[in-house]
Amino acid sequence: MGRNLVNGMVLKDRYKILSSLGKGSFACVYLARDLQWKGNLVALKQIRTDTFTPDEYRALNTSFLQEAAFLMTLKHRGLPRVVEFFAEGPCYYLALEWLPGKTLEETVLKGEEVAEARVVRWGVDLCDVLTYLHEQKPFPITLGDLKPSNAIVKYDGSLAVIDFGLARHYVPSQQKRSFSMVTPGFSPPEQYKGGAADPRGDIYALGASLYWCLTRSAMDKFRFQVPPVRNLREDVSQRMQELLAICLDPEPRKRFSDVRALGEHLKLLQEWLNREEQAVKPSDILSALYKRKKD
To answer: Which residues of 226-238 are buried (b: 16+ CB within 10 A; e: fewer)?
Structure first.
């Protein structure tokens, strides 16, 4: 059985557990101090395999560590630095640079409805990260598990993807993915079938994440028949509704061909929303005329 990590425990003679950051169906994340680099904090993700079938374990064992060296070379402002991958007993560990902030999920749930313009900015940030990953050579890197709890809103307001332990190369010649996990509501339908997770699967997950940010709806209840977002929020623009509909199409070939294209459309929407916001309102004109007459 995989062991639970408790505060004060030192793992691998390097990582001192400080607290628990969260727990999922098959993984736990801990805040730890890196004793090798004093003062540095890491998010230590523990993937427990004691509930896996033998086939699932073999698939993960083959694929997880193969990507370690490559993932450690990734450098992007929207990705934490990968410190180390390692295995110990039945558990796999991923040590990531700890980024202070709140998860996107926490940020959306803590207050009132989030303005469309802010959600669009988040979408632009996520597209920037995914474009960097998808354009890696010789093969793209796909996240495979993008969702609001796996992104963090940093103190400067920008987004970073904090959990990419399932990221891997997408090799077009491969017909099936060796190992796959799904998150109901955010994973695309093809991922449930064990098919190859190409970059368009990340586009679906990004669209689902933005839709959730706008509506806070339980995405899994839609069963891949996601209603137009304006059905749930009338103030969302028609342009945003059309973008999300393309991202969330159950047919991968009907989604955006690549995330760079989606990012460009989101930037155009961002510019349009900014112009709308800066437009002079009739009430402002009346106030200005009144002020001139008074002066």
So the answer is: beebeeebeebbe
Alpha-carbon distance values, 80 to 98, 151, 191, 215 (Å) = 7, 11, 25, 28
The CATH code belonging to domain 10-97 is 3.30.200.20
The string of pLDDT tens digits covering residues 36-80 is 987 799 999 888 777 677 777 676 666 666 666 777 888 999 999
Tokens (6 digits) for 98: 């700890």
CA distance 236 to 208: 15
pLDDT at residue number 175: 46
Measured in degrees and rounded to the nearest 5, phi and psi for residue 24 equal -115, -165
Give rounded-to-5 percent helix, strand, coil for the chain: 40, 20, 40
10-97 and 102-278 share one fold: no
CB distance 78 to 128 below 8 Å: yes
Q: Can you tell me the mean pLDDT for 252-265?
A: 96
Tens of pLDDT, residues 95-140: 989 998 999 999 999 989 999 999 999 999 999 999 999 999 888 8
User: CATH number of 102-278: 3.40.50.261, 1.20.970.10, 3.40.50.300, 1.10.510.10?
Assistant: 1.10.510.10
Domain boundaries, the chain: 10-97, 102-278
